[in-house]
């Protein structure tokens, strides 16, 4: 898809300096600009590149005045970085602006859906599903029975939503993620085998949640696994049965949260963190990457390590960890001198 400099300036409320009919169809870094590309200059460190870039159009701030000859057409705006971000958002909306039901796909009885639905090829929508307005479900996705989906949601290719799941508005779920699979519940038997405990709860995902690729959120044994408003989950995250994650908490990749743990709001959890079950993590907690959390944490704690402890104490202790061979050697020398 192509845009002229004039069209882009209209979107950004900017001023064209150069050829208003210059066309672009791709984005680039300013130092890697090629003909037909759009770039931007926000960091003064890159100012020299504007005189050599091959990009057709460059977004700059109003304060920029070239000191040498340039070949790129300029679009002057109040803030180049913010305007470029706005343009990316606009471009993404245009790219995802699909509608209609592709074939083959299956829509079961009792399904209701709003305006501007996009249902890609090879999708299956189960019985009594309710889908809001402007929902995009990409190919090879599965929506189980009795699922509810709010407005303006995007499910990318290969998403699986099991039955009874409730999803709010403005949610994005990326490819390969599974929501509502059985929790890990098995009861040990006298003969040493394990009997599966039926998982009859569901998953509730509130508004404005984004879930990365290949993550899994298990349904509750009873009640609900709950992902609250504004939560952002990275790729490859495991959320076990009956977990609750508070508003606006962000969790990085490869973190695992065991069953029935409650996490507060506005927490920041790094990658590869392991959290045991049946504990409570307070509001505003920060957990550094690769930490192991084995006990409840109070509001505002910052921890690191496995088992995790106060981050400041960890940082001080790490100095000694690194010097441990030297310290042992010195102790051995002292022992020899005392003999």
TrEMBL record:
<keyword id="KW-0677">Repeat</keyword>
<comment type="function">
    <text>Catalyzes the N-acylation of UDP-3-O-acylglucosamine using 3-hydroxyacyl-ACP as the acyl donor. Is involved in the biosynthesis of lipid A, a phosphorylated glycolipid that anchors the lipopolysaccharide to the outer membrane of the cell.</text>
</comment>
<dbReference type="Pfam" id="PF04613">
    <property type="entry name" value="LpxD"/>
</dbReference>
<feature type="domain" description="UDP-3-O-[3-hydroxymyristoyl] glucosamine N-acyltransferase non-repeat region">
    <location>
        <begin position="22"/>
        <end position="89"/>
    </location>
</feature>
<dbReference type="Pfam" id="PF00132">
    <property type="entry name" value="Hexapep"/>
</dbReference>
<comment type="subunit">
    <text>Homotrimer.</text>
</comment>
<dbReference type="InterPro" id="IPR011004">
    <property type="entry name" value="Trimer_LpxA-like_sf"/>
</dbReference>
<dbReference type="InterPro" id="IPR007691">
    <property type="entry name" value="LpxD"/>
</dbReference>
<keyword id="KW-0444">Lipid biosynthesis</keyword>
<keyword id="KW-0441">Lipid A biosynthesis</keyword>
<keyword id="KW-0443">Lipid metabolism</keyword>
<comment type="similarity">
    <text>Belongs to the transferase hexapeptide repeat family. LpxD subfamily.</text>
</comment>
<protein>
    <recommendedName>
        <fullName>UDP-3-O-acylglucosamine N-acyltransferase</fullName>
        <ecNumber>2.3.1.191</ecNumber>
    </recommendedName>
</protein>
<feature type="active site" description="Proton acceptor">
    <location>
        <position position="241"/>
    </location>
</feature>
<dbReference type="InterPro" id="IPR020573">
    <property type="entry name" value="UDP_GlcNAc_AcTrfase_non-rep"/>
</dbReference>
<keyword id="KW-0808">Transferase</keyword>
<comment type="pathway">
    <text>Bacterial outer membrane biogenesis; LPS lipid A biosynthesis.</text>
</comment>
<dbReference type="InterPro" id="IPR001451">
    <property type="entry name" value="Hexapep"/>
</dbReference>
<dbReference type="GO" id="GO:0103118">
    <property type="term" value="F:UDP-3-O-[(3R)-3-hydroxyacyl]-glucosamine N-acyltransferase activity"/>
</dbReference>
<keyword id="KW-0012">Acyltransferase</keyword>
């Amino acid at each position: 898809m192509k845009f002229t400099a004039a069209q882009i300036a209209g979107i950004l409320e900017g001023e064209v300096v150069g050829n208003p009919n210059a066309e672009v169809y791709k984005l680039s870094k300013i130092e890697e600009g090629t003909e037909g590309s759009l770039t931007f200059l926000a960091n003064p460190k890159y100012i020299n590149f504007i005189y050599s870039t091959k990009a057709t159009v460059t977004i700059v701030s109003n304060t920029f005045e070239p000191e040498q000859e340039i070949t790129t057409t300029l679009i002057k705006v109040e803030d180049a970085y913010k305007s470029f971000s706005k343009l990316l958002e606009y471009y993404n909306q245009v790219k995802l602006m699909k509608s209609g039901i592709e074939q083959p796909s299956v829509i079961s009885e009792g399904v209701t859906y709003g305006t501007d639905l996009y249902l890609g090829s090879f999708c299956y929508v189960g019985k009594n599903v309710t889908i809001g307005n402007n929902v995009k479900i990409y190919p090879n996705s599965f929506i189980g029975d009795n699922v509810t989906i709010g407005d303006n949601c995007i499910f990318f290719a290969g998403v699986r939503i099991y039955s009874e799941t409730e999803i709010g508005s403005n949610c994005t779920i990326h490819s390969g993620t599974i929501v509502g699979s059985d929790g890990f519940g098995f009861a040990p038997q006298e003969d040493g085998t394990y009997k599966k405990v039926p998982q009859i709860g569901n998953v509730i995902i509130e508004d404005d949640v984004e879930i990365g690729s290949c993550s899994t959120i298990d349904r509750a044994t009873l009640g609900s696994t709950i992902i609250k408003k504004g939560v952002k989950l990275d790729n490859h995250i495991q959320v076990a049965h009956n977990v609750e994650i508070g508003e606006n908490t962000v969790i990085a990749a490869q973190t695992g949260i065991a069953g029935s743990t409650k996490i507060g709001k506005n927490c920041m959890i790094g990658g590869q963190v392991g959290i045991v079950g049946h504990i409570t993590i307070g509001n505003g907690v920060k957990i550094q990457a690769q930490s192991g959390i084995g006990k409840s944490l109070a509001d505002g704690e910052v921890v690191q390590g496995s088992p995790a402890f106060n981050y400041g104490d960890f940082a001080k202790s790490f100095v000694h960890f690194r010097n441990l061979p030297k310290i042992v050697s010195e102790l051995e020398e002292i022992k020899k001198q005392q003999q």
